[in-house]
Write a structure and sequence with these properties.
Elements lengths: L2 H16 L1 H4 L4 H27 L7 H19 L15 H19 L2 H12 L7 H23 L4 H22 L6 H24 L11 H15 L5
Helix pairs in contact: 1-7, 1-8, 3-7, 3-9, 3-10, 4-5, 4-9, 5-7, 5-8, 7-8
């Protein structure tokens, strides 16, 4: 991974959390649209780009790892309470222990997502024979971590933590995916191992993306607003065009 990729992972998530300080009470409609966009983009890159790559390694077992990633994400949500896909009520105060529990769940999830990143460039190039078009995994993590950071800081503010503690938690959360990628860079992994790790992330992405999109209908009347439908189409379209970037 290049230095700018580590920087993008950290700064984008940190910026998403910082925005919660002035805008937490007024940004919920925009946050819901951003979540719908990120869910559609995650689903698109997972199906069109990540899954074919994971299944291309002949000795890998990505199917089992996809199931593992899906159910590990289900378990992690017992800690995070679904904050990574928008389950935070920005007007409801919760106990501090709950906020720290959510922080722990989100941080574990972010670290696990970062593990395949340091090997994905070489993996993608070995499959396609070119260097462009390998940023979809990076952008997928960035796009769904940004609203998660916003929601996390909102929850910490509602729990009346001091600002210095909130900033410290945000820095730690922002560093988890880069730390996962950096830690994995010291381990030599075969293409099969990278494909299995990718399968684990695919399972997590599938859980998050489908949950976001299933809940795009706020009124539970099988009706999605035109604004949400528009950003969902935009997210899928961007995923389809990801190989051009």
């Amino acid at each position: 991974m290049a230095y700018w990729e580590y920087g993008l992972l950290f700064i984008s998530v940190f910026a998403g959390g910082v925005l919660a300080f002035p805008f937490r009470s007024s940004a919920q409609p925009v946050l819901k649209l951003l979540l719908s966009f990120s869910g559609a983009y995650l689903l698109g890159i997972t199906v069109v780009h990540l899954m074919p790559g994971a299944f291309s390694a002949p000795g890998a077992q990505p199917s089992l790892w996809i199931l593992g990633g899906f159910f590990v994400q289900l378990l992690l949500e017992q800690l995070s309470r679904g904050v990574e896909h928008g389950h935070v009520h920005l007007h409801e105060k919760g106990p501090r222990s709950l906020a720290l529990q959510v922080m722990l769940g989100l941080s574990l999830h972010a670290f696990l997502e970062g593990l395949p990143l340091s090997h994905y460039d070489a993996f993608h190039q070995s499959l396609h024979g070119h260097e462009h078009g390998h940023y979809h995994l990076l952008f997928g993590i960035v796009l769904h971590k940004l609203p998660a950071a916003f929601a996390l800081v909102s929850l910490l503010l509602l729990s009346h933590f001091q600002q210095k503690w909130i900033v410290g938690c945000l820095i730690l959360f922002s560093a988890m995916s880069p730390l996962g990628a950096f830690s994995a860079s010291f381990v030599s992994l075969s293409h099969d191992a990278v494909a299995n790790l990718l399968g684990f992330v695919i399972g997590s992405f599938l859980h998050i993306a489908t949950t976001i999109l299933f809940e795009a209908d706020d009124g539970h009347q099988h009706h999605v607003s035109w604004a949400k439908l528009g950003v969902i189409v935009l997210g899928v379209g961007l995923a389809l065009a990801a190989d051009w970037f």
